[in-house]
Inverse folding.
């Protein structure tokens, strides 16, 4: 009797495994017709038909157009019903809130943006973000919310979804970001560092590749998102890629994190603003000085634009920052050996002026083998990228990580993740 029960359980497990795989194959485009599914999986025609019919019955798949014929009757394609649910993305920056909604296939449906100082604290910030999200959902046709992504500009423990001593986010340390979103939208919530969302966005753009890449954001702060063989690398606690707080040689600059000589304290946007103000007070001229005299404080964006337009002070600040950033990236190149490095952020918006210095330092300090096939490029500078990246992160968690736990329910509910004591 026990043997029969074990065999029955094993058969059900095999059936569920193949069913999950078929849905994901159609979702990712690996196989789009019943004959293709049979060839890829090795399952018989009758089994494939049964599994596909069940997936259609559950609402995950539906029949699409007829595909090309290989000599006989043209097979009907299958499509994943990406419109069944909505993914919410909330990308918080130091000085903005950017929210959006996407379909389950990752397509961005709607978005909105507003200026906001994240130092106002978690309660006010998340309330403002949810109000913006609710406005989007009112005009977005969808069955239900299936998942929520939240990106924050600071270190975050991915397993618990809680910020950990974020330097520019007073009052956020250990705050339970998940709970409010879960209670409001009844869906699982994942919280990640903002630069990881940007790395996910780049991965999504390279869907036909299995990329090894680094996304380095040089804005007000500095951080890196690491993709290895197509998978994000967060490390044990989610701190991987936090290059903004590696030590710069011979620097005694005080960082916002409280340590001395961090990369961010000499090359981050806030550090460039600090140094620009000092130089102007000491008599520097040019565009930045003129704007300061007119009552307009420099910003990282202003410094980048001024450098592109030939302002001597801005050029010196950008080039110095790029050399320091390039030195830290070179260490990552030697350890990580990526194929592509994408440079983004407000400071990197200076374009080739910034990239040229980064490239020079990376190629000077990295091993020849590590740079043989390396490409260092500027990001697309598309404000929608963190939203697309957040949608891609949620899709990975829903369909690659937690799918077996909720598949039979037809849609995910809150997914409890144990928090270490």
């Amino acid at each position: 009797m026990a043997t029969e029960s074990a065999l029955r359980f094993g058969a059900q497990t095999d059936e569920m495994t193949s069913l999950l795989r078929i849905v994901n194959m159609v979702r990712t485009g690996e196989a789009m017709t019943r004959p293709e599914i049979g060839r890829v999986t090795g399952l018989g025609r009758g089994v494939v038909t049964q599994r596909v019919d069940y997936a259609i019955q559950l609402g995950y798949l539906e029949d699409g157009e007829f595909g090309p014929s290989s000599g006989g009757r043209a097979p009907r394609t299958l499509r994943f019903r990406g419109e069944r649910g909505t993914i919410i993305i909330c990308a918080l920056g130091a000085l903005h809130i950017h929210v959006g909604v996407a379909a389950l296939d990752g397509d961005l449906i709607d978005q909105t943006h507003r200026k906001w100082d994240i130092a106002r604290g978690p309660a006010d910030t998340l309330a403002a973000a949810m109000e913006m999200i609710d406005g989007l959902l009112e005009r977005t046709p969808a069955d239900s919310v299936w998942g929520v992504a939240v990106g924050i500009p600071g270190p975050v423990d991915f397993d618990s979804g809680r910020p950990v001593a974020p330097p520019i986010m007073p009052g956020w340390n250990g705050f339970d970001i998940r709970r409010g979103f879960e209670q409001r939208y009844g869906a699982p919530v994942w919280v990640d560092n903002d630069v990881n969302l940007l790395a996910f966005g780049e991965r999504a753009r390279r869907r036909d590749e299995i990329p090894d890449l680094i996304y380095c954001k040089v804005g007000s702060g500095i951080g890196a998102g690491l993709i290895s063989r197509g998978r994000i690398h967060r490390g044990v606690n989610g701190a991987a890629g936090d290059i903004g707080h590696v030590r710069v040689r011979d620097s005694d600059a005080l960082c916002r994190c409280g340590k001395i000589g961090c990369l961010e304290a000499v090359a981050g946007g806030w550090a460039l603003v600090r140094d620009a103000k000092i130089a102007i007070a000491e008599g520097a001229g040019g565009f930045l000085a003129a704007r300061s005299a007119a009552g307009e404080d420099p910003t990282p964006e202003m410094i980048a634009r001024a450098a592109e337009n030939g302002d001597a002070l801005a050029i010196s600040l950008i080039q110095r920052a790029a050399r320091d950033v390039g030195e830290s990236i070179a260490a990552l190149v030697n350890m990580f050996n990526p194929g592509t490095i994408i440079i983004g952020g407000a400071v990197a918006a200076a374009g080739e002026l910034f990239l040229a210095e980064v490239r020079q330092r990376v190629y000077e300090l990295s091993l020849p083998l590590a740079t043989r096939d390396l490409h260092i490029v500027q990001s697309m500078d598309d404000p929608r990228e963190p939203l697309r990246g957040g949608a891609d992160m949620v899709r990975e968690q829903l369909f690659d990580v937690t799918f077996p736990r909720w598949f039979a329910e037809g849609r995910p509910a809150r997914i409890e993740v144990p928090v270490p004591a």
